[in-house]
Amino acid sequence: FLLIASKVPKLSSRFLPNATEENAHQMSTQGQVVESIEKSLETLAPGQSVALRLADGNVIAGVTRAPMKRGVKLLDSSGNIHIVPKADIAGIEMISENAVDPAFGGAAAASSSVQPRAKRQPTRIPLVLDIETADPDDILTLLFSACHPLVDLKAVTVTPGSADQLRVVKWILSELGLRDVRLGATDWPSAKNKAGCIDMSCYSKLLFWEGHTAKSLKSVHLQEDEVGPAGEVIAAVCAEVG
């Protein structure tokens, strides 16, 4: 349904001694529309798609959030939050509704109804993730970044960069289908055989759930030319993304 009204308070004709009968009727009708808008606002629930026509002629379309006593909170298609005071709202359209209340324009109003904004594809953020693997939090950060829809993971650099550290990272990226992500190490290849950089038994338990084939992470094949010095990897990514 579509309700449109000017911001005019409801006044009785007895307070307008100089008003004509026609003007009094118009004022009364506008007041009824304002009341209808207020009732519509009261029935709004979180998650509804609506378009709000403001008194200044602008339109805000979005999804309703938590209810507010003095206004409406909308989340638009760009992820912006709008808090609109009730006093600024001149009309409401339920975007999910096809029918328009005939009392407020019928088919004519329907033909001019506000269309929801086209959803804009969010921009993915190119990311180089630098980690060390002494604690599981870095690996959990890698998992989160690799799976996040707004992250474009370009490279993972490891400190200091032992072969075992890089095997774990390579295995995770391979399992997630991210085989084109560059690998870098702070001290490569000097730290290739450095011991004590990662507890492989700990990560075997973390990454392989019960019942899964307990293959050893040490068996992951890692060629020396798959890894580059961290500084060179970061510089290459920066040149690529501009």
Summarize the structure.
This protein has 242 residues and is α/β, with parallel strands linked by helices. The protein has helices at 21-43, 106-111, 136-147, 163-175, 200-207, 230-241; strands spanning 2-4, 49-54, 59-64, 71-75, 81-85, 89-94, 125-131, 151-158, 182-185, 227-229.
Please give a structural write-up.
With about 240 residues, this protein is of the alpha/beta class. The strands form two sheets. The protein has a six-stranded antiparallel beta sheet with strand order 1-6-2-3-4-5, covered by helices on one side. A four-stranded parallel beta sheet has the order 7-8-9-10, sandwiched between helices. Mean pLDDT is about 75; it is low at about 1-15 and about 95-115. It contains six helices and ten strands. The protein has helices at about 20-45, 105-110, 135-145, 165-175, 200-205, 230-240; strands spanning about 1-5, 50-55, 60-65, 70-75, 80-85, 90-95, 125-130, 150-160, 180-185, 225-230. Strand 2 and strand 3 (about 60-65) form a beta hairpin.
